[in-house]
Amino acid sequence: MDFSIRAAKPEDSKDISRMIMELAVYEKMPDQVKISHKELEQDGFGANPFYHCVIAEVPEKQKSKDGHTTVGYALFFYTYRTWKGRTIYMEDLYVMPEFRGKGIGKALMSTVARIGQEQQCACLQLSVLDWNRPSLDFYLAKGAQDLTATEGWHFLRFDGDAMEKLAQEAP
Amino acid sequence: MDFSIRAAKPEDSKDISRMIMELAVYEKMPDQVKISHKELEQDGFGANPFYHCVIAEVPEKQKSKDGHTTVGYALFFYTYRTWKGRTIYMEDLYVMPEFRGKGIGKALMSTVARIGQEQQCACLQLSVLDWNRPSLDFYLAKGAQDLTATEGWHFLRFDGDAMEKLAQEAP
C-alpha cells in the first residue's frame, strides 16, 4: 500500500479531531473527549504551538470506506529532562483499523523519532495503559524501556478543583 | 522567613544547574547529570524555550551557609492531552535542605499551577518515584491523583540506540 507521512497543517484539524475520537472509542472512553477541532487548530498551529503532529495519507483510490485519505496521526511535543536535556514525547499514535498491519504506525513513530533527533532530543518518551498489551508489546519489541516497571515512576495529576486550590495558594 | 518567587532569567542558569545536581545527589544518581549550565541557558531562554523555570530567593541576610540566595526552583513545560487540551507539567521541584519546612516548595508548586491556569491548562501533571514516599505523600495530600495506581499508566522511553534505530527507519 502507498502512503506518505507529512507534517500536519491547520486544515488537518478536523481529520485529527475525528481520529482522536476514534482512538477514544477504541479506549472505551469517547465521552472523555472535550476538545474541538477549533481548539486543536488554535493550540497546534500558533506562534508557540502546544503540540505538533504528523499525519499519514493514502492516495484517493485507496481511501477508507468512509471516504477518508488521512488515515493515521502521531501527536507529539517537546519536554525536558534536567539531567539529559531535550526530549520528544509522543502523546498519541493512531492508525485507522482498516489500514493497520501495513507499516503506517511504525512509519509515523519513526518520523517522530527522526524529528526528535533533528531537534537534538536525547530520547523519545511515551505512556501506555497496562491493559493495552498489544501497544505495550509493540513498543517494548522496538526497544523501549518500561520505566514504571524498572524504576518505579508513578504519573500524578492535579485536576480541576485540586489545581484551582493550588493556584489560589500562589504567593 | 522571607522569600520571593520569580521567573528565572538566563543569568540564573548556574544556580539552576547547581540545584539540579543537588537534587541528583539526593536521588543518589549524581553521575547521571549530563547537562551544563550553558545548555540550560540555551534551552530555556531562546525564542521557543524547551522549558520554563521559577526560582525561590531569600534576602542576602538569610543566605545559605554556602552563600546562596537562590534556594529552590520548579522547572516546567507545556504538554498536551488530546482529550482535554493544554496541560502544564512540573518536571522538578526542589528546595535546598536548610530551607525546607518554610512553605517554599508549596509556593513554587502553587506558582506553577497559577501559571498553568493563566495559560488555560486544564491540569498540572508530574511524575514521582515510588520509593520517594515523602514527595508522593506531599502531592497526594495536596489533591493529586496517582494515575499509575488508579488507571495503570506506564511510562516508556526509547533511549540512545533504540531511538537511533527508530529514526533510521523513518520513510
UniProtKB/TrEMBL annotation, chains A, B:
Q: What Pfam families does the entry give?
A: Acetyltransf_1
Keyword Lipoprotein attributed: no
Q: Which PROSITE patterns does the entry link to?
A: GNAT (PS51186)
N-acetyltransferase domain: from which residue to which, for each copy? 24-168
Q: Superkingdom of the source?
A: Eukaryota
Gene Ontology biological process terms from the UniProt entry: polyamine metabolic process
In which family does this protein belong, per the annotation?
A: Belongs to the acetyltransferase family.
Organism equals Chanos chanos (Milkfish)
Keyword set, alphabetical order = Acyltransferase, Transferase
Report the protein name in the record.
Diamine acetyltransferase 2b
Q: Is this entry keyworded Mitochondrion? A: no
Molecular function via GO: N-acetyltransferase activity
User: Sorted alphabetically, which SUPFAM superfamilies does this protein's record hold?
Assistant: Acyl-CoA N-acyltransferases (Nat)
* InterPro entries with a match to the protein in the record: Acyl_CoA_acyltransferase, Diverse_Substrate_AcTransf, GNAT_dom
